[in-house]
Amino acid sequence: MDVLKHKCFLEELLFWTIKYEFPQKMVTFLLNMLPDQDYKIAFTKTFVQHYAFIMKTLKKSHESDTMSNRIVHISVQLFSNEELARQVTEECQLLDIMVTVLLYMMESCLIKSELQDEENSLHVVVNCGEALLKNNTYWPLVSDFINILSHQSVAKKFLEDHGLLVTWMNFVSFFQGMNLNKRELNEHVEFESQTYYAAFAAELEACAQPMWGLLSHCKVRETQEYTRNVVRYCLEALQDWFDAINFVDEPAPNQVTFHLPLHRYFAMFLSKAVKCQELDLDTILPDQEMLMKLMIHPLQIQASLSEIHSNMWVRNGLQIKGQAMTYVQSHFCNSMIDPDIYLLQVCASRLDPDYFISSVFERFKVVDLLTMASQHQNTVLDSEHERSMLEGALTFLVLLLSLRLHLGMTDDEILRAEMVAQLCMNDRTHSSLLDLIPENPNPKSGIIPGSLSFESVLSAVADFKAPVFEPGGSMQQGMYTPKGEVWDKEFDPVMVILRTVYRRDVQSAMDRYTAFLKQSGKFPGNPWPPYKKRTPLHPSYKGLIKLLHCKTLHIVLFTLLYKILMDHQNLSEHVLCMVLYLIELGLENSPEQESDEEESAGGQERCHDSWFPGSNLVSNMRHFINYVRVRVPETAPEVKREPPASTSSDGLASSQSSRRKSLQRENSGTAQVFSLVAERRKKFQEIINRNTSEANQVVRPKTSMKWSAPGATPQLTTAILEVKESILSLLIKLHHKLSGKQNSYYPPWLDDVDVLIHPEIPRYSHGDGMTAVERILLKAAVQSRLNKRIIEEICRKVTPPVPPKKISSAEKKTLDKEERRQKARERQQKLLAEFASRQKSFMETAMDVESPEADIAMEVATSEQHVSEAIYDCVICGQSGPSTEDRPTGLVVLLQASSVLGQCRNSTEPKRLPTTEEEQIYPWDTCAALHDVRLTTLQRYFRDSSCLQAVSIGWEGGVYVQTCGHTLHIDCHKSYMESLRNDQVLQGFSVDKGEFTCPLCRQFANSVLPCYPGNNVERSLWQSHSNKCMQDLVQEVEDLQEQLGTFPVSISSETNLSKEMESVMKDIKSTTQKKYTDYSKTLGSPDNDFLFMYSVARTNLELELVHRGGNLCSGGASTAGKRSCLNQLFHVLAMHMRLYSIDSAYNPWRKLTQPIQDKNSEISEELPEVPVLYRDVSSLLLIQILTMPQPLHKEHFNCIIKVLFTLLYTQALAALSVKCSAEDRMAWKESGALRKNTSSGEKSWEVLLGHVISELSKGKMYEEGETEELTVVNPDSVECYLQQFCLPFLRIASLLQHHLFGGDLPSCQEDEEFTVLASCLCLLPSFQSAHQFTSASCLDWPVPAFDMISQWCSELASFGDRHPDQVKALLIQEPKWDLPRLLQLPENYNTIFQYYHRKTCTVCTKVPKDPAVCLVCGTFVCLKGLCCKQQSYCECVLHSQNCGAGTGIFLLINASVIIIIRGHRFCLWGSVYLDAHGEEDRDLRRGKPLYICKERYKVLEQQWVSHTFDHINKRWGPHYNGL
User: Fold this and answer.
1) What pLDDT is stored for residue 1044 in this prediction?
2) For the chain, what is the radius of gyration of the CA atoms?
């Protein structure tokens, strides 16, 4: 810290660079010269010389983040070079400077420690609230230090330099005991400080990481000296710390700090010494007194964790839970909890086991609970916390005795155990596993995730589950799930408990384990955590086993078994589970020296005290205990009895009297009281006084045990209990209790002696408490013949039932309480069950639409009613009834504009997303484009009003109507919308736009479609064929069309129903943009509305066809049928179409059915009508149907179909004739003329084709050069062509018939589709056998065919005279559309990324910050780009309106995520590109290679085609036109 003296320009330069906080240009300038070796050395030395100055500037800086980055930018280039680092260390004392600078930096923010002795403490700690720690300002300096310690030569210097080690330990002790938590006992803390994260980060970065760096150089025997040095100075620092905080032997109550870096340094170097350096542990361990002190604080943390989880710290707020979670969290655990537990294991292996066990129970505050008495008083713990604290204490002991992380496991075994634990809690993705498995924080320490061992262990323990889709639409990533044998053999609940951040994860692991056992048939019930064999202990830690074989633990286990058997309160299944686990651990790890003979000889005389004869669990298990003296409140039931003359003694509750260790032979007749706490203090005294002879003095009473005033609680008196049990007898009785049967336990070896020789039986490895008891008894019998004999004896005596205890009033109260609770629980179950069944029946009635019988969703008409009027259920008010004029019912529907149909292309090869400049997508071959061109051409040559009836629109921006199938009264719906409007909850939809969710199934909707009242009589009648002749029917249809004004529902009588129908029509119109509805040349022409309305019907029929796969081969009512609302939609459309009367002179029906007599051919000024042969037949069908009175009769429907089929067939022949060559045409013409007058002439395509050719030859149809020749010579291919031409119309007609009249669609093979549909539509006179069938046999001409054809062709001829160039182009061609598809994406995401992420935007010619590409048409757009904004609409929103009529699907190039825009809302859909492990990489953060997931892309396409984005994706938000 000397004054800086500058001797050269470089020093001056660096000084000012630091002074101005490292300006970027200066940094670059100074770094650019580094390749010059001399400069590099000079610059490094100068940098080191200014290190303290850098630290001071950094502390004062306001922009410490930026400055930190720039410092590290420089230092990483200087200190990463080992040679240079070594040179500077030697010549410039680099290590001294760094450590001193760090020390000096931290000294600026020290405060007095309040740990232990608040008044007199001399210890100082860093204040975690200071900016220095909160903002991580220290990290550049720490990271430099870690960086240079990674070089072996530098680390060696550090570890050899005693002065440096002392300074460093001094630095580390600043963090020892920081961020002290004091338990709030009265009211909730006012302000929850969040400084804890700074404390954890500081310990990890400033203490743990340098420690791991140093440890990485202590791997071989030769480095033993380094470890000795570190351990020596670490212990000195710890001794100083204990002195500074005035620590004697009891920690202060109600405080905890999670930060003990000195303890952890000590622990980790010990571990390394044993594991890698073959050091003898005892040579570096301190004396017993120091070990006793060392264990106190880590043990305090374990007890506090248990207190926090028992909600005893709840007044300290959420942050204390945060600390408990961070302490065990994967990034911290191996620098925090693991060393702590290891240190406790070391202490336990070297200290007196009785002392250690009693310390544990005292720390966990459950000493008072460990009494045989049924009642006790706990002076330090509320009764509601007792149970969870006892569970905590036992679980901690199990962890302490089971974990082998530092006690003998190899790195690969550890990795495997960690991985199994994580996978058992939940299935994990590859990246989350990498994150969750604690790695050595120091990067150069060898085992790193992603290394070969990681992958090989992963493939050994887990199976990969490919990414799938849940039915709800949420997308799963590729997951790893544990293999069956892992559940079977390796599932380790202890490891799971150690590694769970949330307690629910332990439950999750158990649930998954249960499911596995059920599924594999290993165990049907609720299993207990399995017992897992452990890796053998390293010889240095053998002393740990003594814990399992000490009397104190056996007394505790005996007491707890007794209490559980007697049903004392506050004991749970978890307690029993842990007790049995400890017994089993003891049996597995028993000391070998036991011999039965010696045991049987005078066991009685050797018994020094009245509890157990020795310390070996195997022999103690069979020791019977007759009487126990207990301290109980005077009110307890035990007091009443007279004590027998000779008693033996317990008294875990008494914390007063202390037992003298007497050497005279005491007979087991005299009773004394045994006390845990007194025992422990006694031991401590002995060690401190180092003098056993003085050990008789009574321990000084401690202040920490605060006794309440004598009057406040009932006095404790001594009572004597008759017990007469041993651990074995208690276990057998427990088995009876768990099974609920007397004598349920039968020793298995009596039937099969082999059990004793091979005790490892698979049937014992999984199961519940009974299995555990059986397993333990078997192990006890295997270990000793005496035990085996005693077990058999106990089982022989038929156990009498436990005598009923006299119940005191206090216990009665608790029992009553329990009983009342039980009853309340039963009542609740009953109510819930009733509620569930009611709900189920409601769902069944409401969801009736799901049943396949209901052919159209709503008409669940019951056959019993004579007038089968449709009955609807209102899902809001729950009433059922018909829909009436004044109270109409409506279907919940979602109206949305759709351009999906317009995206069909006429090639089967799907378009690819362009990924090079050469590839481009031109939209001229889409369905929408071709329809657009056709309409525009027609409008040039023909009268507008007639053009608008010759085609359908809605290929782009058509309105698609879908329903969830639920109905409601329209007035109920209005009040529902009102309530939604007043509801202030943030909804994902806009109520003002009429959006809502179906009250029953929560599906998104935005309108209600009124159901037309009326009966479904014609449904039953439609089968009956009428005998009227064709001519009569044609006439009837015409008459019906004439009487337009007179309908059952007349518009004049403004009923509620008609109002609703008008309002829904408005909704339908406003769903799509104006440009998709206005095609007329004159604005607001009624023809426009007329065209729009029948096109809505067309759009919905065409889309249903697409959903069925483009044909009707599958038949049935299909899923689309259930959700279909076409019947209701037709009524609404028909009612509005009737408002526009068709002038009878122009009614297309006449042109189709009557030869026009007077051919007055005066050329009028007006444009002519569209010739019939240019009209779209499906559109004509809809016009005819929708302008007829509803409900329509089946016979009239059939008549219309027959007439239109004749026109369609003629169009097919005309289209065919254009495709043949001139010679073919001549041949057909002649062969047709020959057969013209035969009887079946009208039903033979050859004749008709000949006639068409001869008629069309009159015009200029065939004069132009042959453009495309189709060699259609053989009759089969002609027949095939004609069928293909007619199929689209037949499909639409069949669907229409299915929706109007019910009746299922027949299913068929693809090659029979034509015949099946024709017969379904009654076009086939009688179904003929397939081989002689021709399409022409379906024709049924209302007037002589040749007259009709001549008349239709003459229209073309006259048009051809005027516009010979257009006459052929306008002929309707054979329509061959492929199903709509999204663009095909490349296999590898990199292909897309490389091309698009630097591509310039076509609008603003800049490279967009967030580029996106439309997956429907391939347009490149700027997401959120202000440059391309037009009238407050950003480019993506604008494009979604132009390309998809409000629906856009965009791939965000820089995030690999797909975003969906639907109207005014948007949602993130997910990614279709996944890495090799089936995971998304959103925002490309992990930078893994990504590959297309075809299944996901198919699902995306499916949702687009079926218009279900709104229903499947749940997280929608408004985009405010800003995307």
Assistant:
1) 56
2) 45
Q: Give the pLDDT confidence score for residue 508 in this predicted structure.
A: 95
First-to-final CA distance of the chain: 56
Task: Compute the Cα dihedral for 554, 560, 561, 566 and give only its sign.
Answer: positive
Q: Is 1223 left (phi over 0), alpha (psi -120 to 50) or beta?
A: alpha
Pick left, alpha or beta for residue 1332 (phi over 0 → left; psi -120 to 50 → alpha; otherwise beta): alpha
Q: Which residue matches tokens 């007349």?
A: 1050
**Whose CA is closest to 421, among 492, 471, 362?**
492
SS3 1441: helix
Is 88 within 8 Å of 44 (Cβ atoms)? Answer: yes
Specify whether the CB–CB gap between 267 and 182 falls below 8 A. no
Phi, psi values for residue 739, rounded to 5°? -85, -15
pLDDT at 540 over 80: yes
Coil vs helix vs strand at 635: coil
What local confidence, expressed as pLDDT, does residue 296 receive? 95
Among 837-841, 890-894, 909-913, which range has the highest average pLDDT? Answer: 890-894
Contact 385, 310 (CB under 8 A): yes
Q: What percent of the chain has pLDDT over 90?
A: 37
Cis before residue 1191, ω within 30 degrees of 0? yes
pLDDT band at 591 (very low <50, low <70, confident <90, very high): confident
Q: Report DSSP state, residue 601.
A: T
User: In this model, does residue 306 exceed pLDDT 70?
Assistant: yes
Which of 571, 561, 570 is CA-nearest to residue 382?
A: 570
Q: What is d(CA 366, CA 381) in angstroms, rounded to the nearest whole number?
A: 8
pLDDT digits (tens, 9 = 90+) for 642-692: 444 334 444 443 332 233 232 222 333 333 345 666 666 676 666 655 433
Q: Which residue has the tokens 């994260």?
A: 197
Assign 1412 a pLDDT band (cuts: 50, 70, 90).
very high
Q: Tell me: the pLDDT tens digits for 768-804?
A: 888 889 888 888 888 888 888 888 888 887 554 444 4
**C-alpha dihedral, 771 to 776 to 778 to 780, nearest 10°:** -170
What's the confidence (pLDDT) of residue 440?
A: 67
Amino acid identity, position 52: A
Q: How many helices (H) and strands (E) does the chain have?
A: 58, 23
What single letter denotes the amino acid at residue 1107?
A: H
Element (H, E) at 1113: none
User: In this structure, are residues 877 and 995 in contact, taking their beta carbons and an 8 Å threshold?
Assistant: no
Residue type (1 letter), 434: L
In angstroms, the CA 1099 to CA 1182 distance is 11
Both tokens assigned to 388: 């969870």
User: 904: closest CA among 1505, 1459, 1508?
Assistant: 1505
pLDDT digits (tens, 9 = 90+) for 1305-1350: 888 888 888 888 888 888 876 655 545 577 887 888 877 888 888 8
Are 781 and 747 in contact by the 8 Å Cβ rule? The answer is yes
**Taking a C-beta distance cutoff of 8 angstroms, is the pair 1006, 1064 a contact?**
no
DSSP class of 1275: H
Token duo for residue 1035: 């006439």
- Provide the pLDDT for residue 1144: 52
The model's pTM is: 0.79
Among 970, 1039, 1038, 1047, which residue's Cα sits nearest to residue 1014?
1047
Amino acid at 1081: K
Handedness of CA 334, 337, 338, 342 (dihedral sign): positive
Q: From CA 1436, how far away is CA 1419, in angstroms rounded?
A: 10
Quote the distance between the C-alpha of residue 1082 and its chain's center: 56
The helix (H) or strand (E) run that includes residue 256 is strand 255-256
Strand 889-898 and strand 880-881: the pairing is unpaired
Residue 825 CA, distance from chain mean position: 32
Which token pair is 1092?
């729009």
Residue 821 near residue 653 (C-beta atoms within 8 A): no
